[in-house]
Design brief:
The chain is α+β, with helices and mostly antiparallel strands and 334 residues long. Helix content is 34%, strand content 26%. It is built from nine helices and 17 strands. The longest helix is centred in the first third of the chain and has 28 residues. It is globular, with a radius of gyration of 22 Å. The site of pyridoxal-5'-phosphate (PLP) has 13 residues, from helix 7.
């Protein structure tokens, strides 16, 4: 009996180890083989931080979400400089002194995409307080920075990109920017977004829409919102406690180029429910049509035609089909 146990037990362990390795490989294939970590490229496994890092305890980190697209001229990163500038701006708001300038971070990102040999990917730069003290005041906590690539398809879902998303008004309100600067992209407040999206998913919706205390519309858990009425596009601004999205300002230019007008103003629920079309936008969500808000059908309950027209224009630009907009693309071969 002991003899059988002595043979079977090590075999069982080898089997478990193989399964573990297989899982790790599948998991890692979605993530960076290399991660840019405090100025150097390092293997996925070695990009680690200490459990006592300030950022884990207090969410003291700022980050970006950027997309790289496969184009005929090779992979190109959309609005890379604008994202790295916003990373610095967010960091400044929290006195997080990033030890790398914008240009260095842009070059590091391109180097990382080359090294990971990825084409279409999502990029996640993050700057955070590491370990020095557990006090809320970060004192001498070092500022650490990393950049990772991630194979991330449609953010909401592929189906939502084509046929429209079903969203719900969240019971969670958007925090006010006098409590927290909402136009910064900082980690801590994403717990607000997390609560909203967890609630939305648990009730069978694709995404959440957060309202402000006064019940005006704020934004999605990770997206800005636009509505269209009588061929005019409407969206809100920082007075509605939103992140001023890079996609949002990109779309301003594209809307005008398509021959339409946009207006920036606060959005009420009445505006939303009487809109012809509604959509979300963001670097990860791109242009996602919204076909339903709770029980209300938006327009005819399908993706809006103007929304799809804008989505097509956006895809053409990010995928390098319009030379005029190469200025927004950082080709990694450059
Ligand atoms: C809360 C929130 N609002 C808006 C956006 C859209 O911002 P951007 O277009 O810069 O990606 C995001 C995306 O990161 C977000 O998280």
């Amino acid at each position: 009996m002991i003899y059988i146990k002595n043979i079977l037990y090590p075999l069982y362990n080898i089997f478990l180890f193989k399964i573990y390795k297989l899982n790790l490989c599948i998991h890692m294939s979605n993530y960076s083989r290399y991660i840019w970590f405090n100025g150097k490229l390092t293997n996925f496994e070695n990009a680690k931080i200490h459990v006592l890092s300030h950022c884990i305890h207090y969410g003291s980190a700022v980050f970006e979400g950027i997309k790289c697209y496969d184009t005929d001229n090779g992979p190109a990163i959309f609005k890379l400089k604008e994202h790295m500038e916003r990373l610095h701006k967010s960091a400044n708001a929290f006195k997080i002194k990033i030890p790398f300038d914008v240009n260095t971070l842009c070059e590091a990102t391109k180097e990382l995409v080359r090294k990971n040999e990825v084409k279409d990917c999502y990029l996640r730069p993050i700057a955070y307080y590491g370990f020095d003290t557990l006090g809320v005041h970060p004192k001498k906590c070092p500022v650490e920075v990393s950049i990772a690539t991630l194979n991330w398809g449609a953010y909401v879902s592929k189906d939502a990109l084509e046929k429209g998303a079903r969203i719900t008004i969240s019971p969670w309100k958007k925090y006010k920017s006098n409590a927290f600067p909402s136009s910064t992209k900082a980690s801590g407040p994403y717990l607000n977004s997390m609560l909203a999206v967890q609630d939305a998913k648990s009730r069978g919706f694709d995404e959440a829409l957060l309202l402000n205390e006064d019940n005006t519309v704020a934004e999605g858990s990770g997206q800005n919102i636009f509505l269209i009425k009588n061929n005019v596009f409407y969206t809100n601004d920082q007075t509605s406690n939103i992140l001023l999205g890079i996609t949002r300002s990109t779309l301003f230019e594209l809307i005008e180029e398509l021959g339409y007008k946009y207006k920036v103003q606060n959005i009420s629920q009445d505006d939303l429910f009487s809109a012809d079309e509604v959509f979300y936008c963001g670097s990860a969500s791109e242009v996602t049509p919204i076909k339903q808000i709770d029980n209300h059908k938006v327009g005819n309950g399908k993706s809006g035609l103007l929304t799809l027209k804008l989505q097509e224009k956006y895809y053409n630009i990010v995928r390098g089909k319009e030379e005029k907009y190469f200025k927004w693309l950082s080709f990694i071969s450059d």
